[in-house]
Amino acid sequence: MNTRVAVAGATGRLGTLICDIVDADPALDLVARITSASAPETGAEADILVDVSHPDASPDIVSRALDRGQRVLIGTSGWSESRLETLRARLESEPDAAVIVVPNFSLGSVLGTTLARVAAPFFDAIEIIEAHHPGKVDSPSGTAVRTAELVAAARQGRPVDAPFADQPARGELVAGIPVHSLRLAGVVAKQEVRFGGAGEVLTITHDTHSSEAYRAGIRAALAALPAARGLTVGLDGVLGLDRVLADPASPEAASPEAATADDPGSRA
């Protein structure tokens, strides 16, 4: 029997793409295209609920899906760490439930964030610039928020140097890191994570040129959901990239001082 899928936010950019992917998969049946005008019970027969709706509507949509025993894939922005904690607490009491939250379905984006986590302990000056099309309603983007939170966690409590952060033009502080949002015609999605050090700047940039960039990540998340348990946050968890960083170097090793202590050639 095929897995039945309902998509909330089905008429949006991402929702339309997800519906096309589900329609093309012989193992999946698209049973409901849910919009803001749909009745709350629409899609109740589905095994999986994909939510790519609106940040304000998403929590209620997800809660109803869990009440019905559906497995949930969330691609909607706005799922901050505090909102995720509430969801995580609920899932602890529902051992068979599963939710995968993916701020960005692009493989390049998740790899860029992983590289930023690697670089984070080595630089004290860190800022994020994200740009999206004018129709994106929230800012900062969910991807930028997630990147900032992961970069801050990789620093193991060491604060970021963010001078004059109280000035509005310095961006919004997320986990202590300034995040700057642009909304421009001609842009699909772009994120830069900039690291400043003595005499150098490292920039990790990811550009999305079309929604085709999301196909592989959407397929991977849908395939992972039937066997998932509890809460998985990020495409890195789906792809196993979290295991790559599961055994980070000690704080002494992951520092600028340690990087040069035993290698005279690195001082050049």
TrEMBL record:
Role summary:
Catalyzes the conversion of 4-hydroxy-tetrahydrodipicolinate (HTPA) to tetrahydrodipicolinate.
- What is this enzyme's EC? 1.17.1.8
**Localization, UniProt:** Cytoplasm
Which residues are catalytic? H132, K136
Output the InterPro entries linked to this UniProt entry: DapB_C (IPR022663), DapB_N (IPR000846), DapB_N_CS (IPR022664), DHDPR_bac (IPR023940), NAD(P)-bd_dom_sf (IPR036291)
> Which residue ranges does the record assign to the Dihydrodipicolinate reductase N-terminal domain?
4-105
User: Which organism does this sequence originate in?
Assistant: Leucobacter rhizosphaerae
**What's the superkingdom here?**
Bacteria
- UniProt: (S)-2,3,4,5-tetrahydrodipicolinate binding residues: H133, G142, T143
Residue ranges of every copy of the Dihydrodipicolinate reductase C-terminal domain listed in the record = 113-238
Gene3D superfamilies, from UniProt? Dihydrodipicolinate Reductase, domain 2, NAD(P)-binding Rossmann-like Domain
**Oligomeric and partner information:** Homotetramer.
The gene from which this protein is expressed is dapB
UniProt-listed NCBIfam families:
dapB
MF terms from GO for this chain are:
4-hydroxy-tetrahydrodipicolinate reductase
Where is region (Disordered) located? 247-268
Q: Where does NAD(+) bind?
A: G9, A10, T11, G12, R13, L14, G75, T76, S77, V102, P103, N104, F105
Q: What family is it from?
A: Belongs to the DapB family.
Q: Which reaction does it catalyse?
A: (S)-2,3,4,5-tetrahydrodipicolinate + NAD(+) + H2O = (2S,4S)-4-hydroxy-2,3,4,5-tetrahydrodipicolinate + NADH + H(+); (S)-2,3,4,5-tetrahydrodipicolinate + NADP(+) + H2O = (2S,4S)-4-hydroxy-2,3,4,5-tetrahydrodipicolinate + NADPH + H(+)
Pathways involved: Amino-acid biosynthesis; L-lysine biosynthesis via DAP pathway; (S)-tetrahydrodipicolinate from L-aspartate: step 4/4
Which PROSITE patterns does its entry note?
A: DAPB
Q: What protein am I looking at?
A: 4-hydroxy-tetrahydrodipicolinate reductase
